Amino acid sequence: MSDEPSAADEIMDGVYRALRAHGYADATMQDIADECSKSKSLLHYHYDTKEDLLVAFLDHVISDSERRIAAHADDPPAERLAGFIGWFVFERQAVDREAFHIALLELRTQGPFNEPIREQLVRSDRLLRGTVVDILESGIEAGVFRDVDVEETAALLVATLDGARTRQITLSGGADDAADGEGFGRDRSDDSSPDDSSPDDSSPDDSSPDDSSPDDSPSGTFDAADRPEPTYTRAVAEATLRRIVDPLLAEGVELPSLEVGIAEMAPEGGGRTENGDADE
């Protein structure tokens, strides 16, 4: 069996690259043809309009997301949930991925006016919320999560992550740029008020670097001094683990690492899989 992409896959890759380069409104059938090395007449042979092709592309992206989610169906529930959360993180170097999602955001605005596009968006939303529901139900059955309203929790989690992604790609800022206060995304659980301690209460040994290490910090947190300012999606993902996922965990279950989650759900290789984000 050949691993070579089919003509349909090549066309879908061309749509991905054209959207990334030109956006939804400005991408033309000729742009797509140029990106996939096909003739414009061939595209029109299979798809009457750009809209028809974009609807097929949404179907392709969502189907790919379904396959990737299914591939992790047997993973431990807490790790699956961390992977789902990590899927929404856009790092600063992910310029192409962010450009693609800007185009998809344009496409999403057509949902209220275009029934075929709306149907695909509804399908995507059901996939996202349904995935979280499945993870939570599996975790509750396995004793990993407490017994909670899975539908309500899934809706909250998806809305939080999707909103963070939308805010980042529209404002294109870091955590501090998009937050009202300083230090958004930093774990404040160990913060103390000025009255809790003073220089007179501490000894030189209290600040010794040997007294603590990154391994001593709560799982899912980070020291802002040890790495660059997080993007907004990363900051929200970290906060989601602490504020939403951690309270769900049964006693004795360790909070999974966001880094592990990101690695778990990262596409393998490039090419055809690079457009397989679980969204839109």
Automatic annotation (TrEMBL):
InterPro entries: BetI_C, Homeodomain-like_sf, HTH-type_TetR-like_transc_reg, HTH_TetR, Tet_transcr_reg_TetR-rel_C_sf
Keyword Lipid metabolism attached: no
Every HTH tetR-type domain range: 5-65
Highest taxon, organism lineage: Archaea
Any one GO MF annotation of this record: DNA-binding transcription factor activity
Phylogenetic placement of the source organism: Archaea, Methanobacteriati, Methanobacteriota, Stenosarchaea group, Halobacteria
Spans annotated as Disordered: 172-233
Coiled-coil positions: none
UniProtKB keywords: DNA-binding, Repressor, Transcription, Transcription regulation
Name listed for the protein in its UniProt record: TetR family transcriptional regulator
DNA-binding annotation, residue ranges on this chain: 28-47
Acidic residues bias: start-end ranges: 192-214
